[in-house]
Amino acid sequence: MKIFTQPQELQAFALAARRAGKRIALVPTMGFLHDGHASLIDIARRRGDEVIVSIFVNPTQFGPTEDLDQYPRDFEHDCALCEAHGATVIFAPQPESMYASDRSVWVDESALSKVLCGQSRPIHFRGVLTVVAKLFNLAQPDVAVFGRKDAQQAILIRRMVRDLNFPVEIVLGELIRDRDGVALSSRNRYLSADERTRARAISQAVLKAQRELDGAPLRDVAGVVAEVAERIAAAGGRIDYVEARDAETLEPPSAQTTELLLAVAAFFGATRLIDNCFVKLEK
Ligand code: AMP
């Protein structure tokens, strides 16, 4: 397994691999890897000859009051996990080598990025889309794998690929949960034991809603959404949002909606957690 820290090293490697006829699969991450990330590397392994995992805590997607400085890191553990799951390259750059101090070009999306997480994290998706576009140019992937844990991010990346004609196939991996149902997240590390126990209310409410909404008529959605919010609040969670949206357009669901995204963001203590499910409504 190769480890690159310089963007130009990765790009030279990727261009040579493409010229040699190899398929490249990319898995972008911020490190502190867990089984959710591992499941994406497993998908990439099946799809690419070269499996590039990027590990980069991208400063431009953090707001000024967010957790950039505390974000957990464990590069040795990450390398071991990548190797065990068949990654062939780790790309772990420093922010200074990714961003010129006078950078002035961004990938900004003007519709889907304004709702859900975009409401409370106004610059987040601009940072995400910009760094993913840069990673696509550096890693030259045929396919890139993202998790459904960050559903809005995945939908936005698909939109960027469509609107800017990136020659990259986007594959989505399922949301992977811990044994107690809580969605695996590097940020779970911030939770106290008590918060962690109470945070189970999020996944319990989401999974119950998923069962109730599967094949249900549109008119049932509002009541189920309200119940999810009540259950999380009853466990002491401070709700950022609980919303059902059309899974493709992120508009409020309508008669045209075939697939629904139920998305949640809530704080337990100072930690903001997200969770979601996708459901097909009644035809
Ligand atoms: P992150 O390191 O949190 O930026 O996430 C990197 C990638 O891993 C993103 O595509 C996430 O959606 C994905 N990911 C994170 N947690 C999970 C999870 N529990 N299940 C599936 N994918 C995940």
From TrEMBL:
Signal peptide: none
Reactions catalysed according to its record: (R)-pantoate + beta-alanine + ATP = (R)-pantothenate + AMP + diphosphate + H(+)
Role noted for this protein: Catalyzes the condensation of pantoate with beta-alanine in an ATP-dependent reaction via a pantoyl-adenylate intermediate.
The protein's Enzyme Commission number: 6.3.2.1
Top EC category: ligase
PANTHER family: CYTIDYLATE KINASE/PANTOATE-BETA-ALANINE LIGASE (PTHR21299), PANTOATE--BETA-ALANINE LIGASE (PTHR21299:SF1)
Annotated GO CC locations: cytosol
Keyword vocabulary terms for this entry: ATP-binding, Cytoplasm, Ligase, Nucleotide-binding, Pantothenate biosynthesis
Alphabetical list of Gene3D superfamilies matching this protein: HUPs, Pantoate-beta-alanine ligase, C-terminal domain
Subcellular location: Cytoplasm
Chief place where the protein resides: cytoplasm
Native organism taxonomy: unclassified sequences, metagenomes, ecological metagenomes
Protein name, UniProt field: pantoate--beta-alanine ligase (AMP-forming)
GO biological process: pantothenate biosynthetic process
SUPFAM superfamilies: Nucleotidylyl transferase (SSF52374)
Pathway terms, separated by semicolons: Cofactor biosynthesis; (R)-pantothenate biosynthesis; (R)-pantothenate from (R)-pantoate and beta-alanine: step 1/1
A GO MF term: ATP binding
InterPro entries per UniProt: Cyt_trans-like (IPR004821), Pantoate_ligase (IPR003721), Pantoate_ligase_C (IPR042176), Rossmann-like_a/b/a_fold (IPR014729)
Pfam families according to UniProt: Pantoate_ligase (PF02569)
Family as reported in the entry's similarity comment: Belongs to the pantothenate synthetase family.
HAMAP family in the cross-refs: PanC
